[in-house]
Amino acid sequence: MSGLRSDFISDYDGLAGQWWDPRGPLAPLGWIARARAEFIPDAAREQARLLDVGCGGGLFGPHLAGKGYRVFGADLSAKSLHEARRHGFDVVVRADIGQLPFADESFDVVTAGQCLEHVPDPYGVVAELCRVLRPGGTLVVDTIADTRLARLVAITLAENVPLPGRPTRGTHDHRLFVNRERLTAVARSHGVELELTGLRPGLRDGVRYLAGRREEVRMVRVKPTGVLYLGVGTKW
């Protein structure tokens, strides 16, 4: 099976009403969505189309306003797709992200944020992302590295320390974390050379968020890619 874990979908259906809670368990996904949007170019042609794979409740949508795309979202959670439709997505499709129901080379931009680490075959999903991307189009993915440090940060600490924005326990399975070398190799074999960068929460924002003085934490780019990382590339 290439799509998301069935238990993961059930969990997110149950959390569908919390997608937009700035201090809820899904809040960090919004911070990452804002950082991902910085890598999205303005549309270069009329009728340009952007596909957000694993779009969830549509946290990416508001950050795409004014960029000139018709925004599509694909996800298995019907309840989350309802939220996405209300927050800037023009078209939403309930679909297995490992078997996308779109034609080859049909999107100008394809993104996949914080979903590859929930997929039994993330590399098959990456192949699908490349398949539906037009030549000259932009691919942006972000996920969690398959390292001991990532396991410590994303599971041991993030899921167990009682702080606002804490993911629900059991959200992540370290066995599904994504190997950076293999990810870039698969993308390359399908025509996209990914450049990787690390992401982490801004320290000052983080302190103010924990103190209840800020409702969002800006992510900053860093060289190390051993925990949370983002890849961006153009299809040749």
| Shape estimate | globular
Please state roughly what percent of the residues sit in beta strands, choosing from under 5%, 5-15%, 15-25%, 25-35%, 35-45% or over 45%: 15-25%
- Could you give the order of the helices and strands? HHEEHEEHEHHEHEE
Helix content: 25-40%
Number of beta strands: 8
* Total of DSSP H or I helical runs spanning 4+ residues: 7
**Biggest pleated sheet:** 8 strands, mixed
* Class computed from helices, strands and strand pairing: alpha/beta
Termini, distance in Å?
29 Å
Strand order of the largest sheet: 3-2-1-4-5-8-6-7
The average pLDDT is 94
Low-pLDDT runs: none
- The value of Rg in angstroms is 16 Å
Explain what you see.
With 236 residues, the chain is an alpha/beta fold. The protein is 28% helix and 22% strand. An eight-stranded mixed sheet has the order 3-2-1-4-5-8-6-7. The protein starts with 5 loop residues before the first helix and ends with a strand.
Keywords summarizing the entry:
236 residues, alpha/beta, 8-stranded mixed β-sheet, 7 helices, 8 strands, globular
In short:
By secondary structure, the chain is of the alpha/beta class. It contains seven helices and eight strands; from the N terminus they run H-H-E-E-H-E-E-H-E-H-H-E-H-E-E.
